[in-house]
Amino acid sequence: MTSESIAANARIALEHLNDQIIGLTEQERQIENIVCDFLRSKDGKCCLLEGKRNSGRESVLRKVLHKYHKNLRVIKAGFVAADPTYQHNLAKEENDGYSVFLVRDADKLLSPQQQKFLYTMVDKATDHSWLVFFSVSRQDFAQNLQKQATSRIPKVQVSFKSTFNYEEYCSAMTQLLIPPGSACEEDDPYKEFISNLEYKKWLKPFFELKPFVTLKQIAAQLLMLFGYYFNDETIWNTDEIQREIKIIIDRANPSFSGEILLLNDQTLRAQCVFLCVWRLLQNKSSDGPLITPRITYRTVFLEFKKLVHTVYTSLDVISDIYVFRELDHLVKMGLLRADESANVTNTSFRKVWLSINDKIVKDSIQKLQLPSVVCDFFETVLK
């Protein structure tokens, strides 16, 4: 087996990737029936596509329409809701050559004022022989409409709810890396190479927290790696491959944070100042329901001095200015956020808060290679 053979097959699989939609055969069949009926009868109609974000609604619709050489016009409901002029212009439009529409994020049109746009699209579907799909996330979308809208919105609905087990999830990865019906399927060495990746061992976190779209993103990165990066026999070895795969998987992991990598490059003092902020915020209540909990620079300095005097005197500083400078640096690096209000004339009273999820920070403490006593200090969260 040569690197050229693997690279060639990986590029073939990458070309097929966009067209691969997995686990939605029944939804594809339903949408194709709706489209076929519309093309045959020329009767305008509407349909709800119900499912979570990234559940494949638009991808399946585009795949079916491509098969019948039909263009799709996408209308973003957020624009409609935010801009009355945009809504007004759409309402005045005549038939301009499009016959299939998708209203994306139609949940944003549930307010009584915005539901008028729903009437408009339903009426235009009838007047101009349009096929209009409303993409919604809420299962109770139709129940939340006013009576006028309920009577107009169709009962036709395609639900995008994927139910699959871990074995099926791993099989989906195999299908993405070895597209059915492609030349990859005929290349036994390539199939063996893919099998040896043993992705069942590292896909579990994605199966538990992420949809198929993440699986597709990981497959794309792996195929790019195999198809374009490893093109030199001298680096085509198992250790190098596993090292690069680990980087891809770590970055795709739900718990990954680029800021944590940045924090890892900071000095020990900067890391400790950051973790002092995190530690203090664990039991800090906010000043309002929409305000993030925050603390003053002075409070952080006192917590840092507590760390120094309790467990690690080597970090001691002679003035609070050194801690304040570290806080300013962390804010500049995007690891923290600070109050920049003009009325904060005394740096001691400036407030600071996290820009990273606190659970991610907690999970990363062991990875920062802190002295053990410092690590223990921060893992003992204030009671």
Automatic annotation (TrEMBL):
GO cellular component: nuclear origin of replication recognition complex
UniProtKB keywords: Coiled coil
InterPro entries per record: ORC4 (IPR016527)
Record has Transcription regulation as a keyword: no
GO molecular function: DNA replication origin binding
Single GO BP term: DNA replication initiation
Coiled-coil ranges (or none): 7-34
Domain of life per record: Eukaryota
Coiled coil recorded as keyword: yes
PANTHER family per record: ORIGIN RECOGNITION COMPLEX SUBUNIT 4
Protein name: ORC4_C domain-containing protein
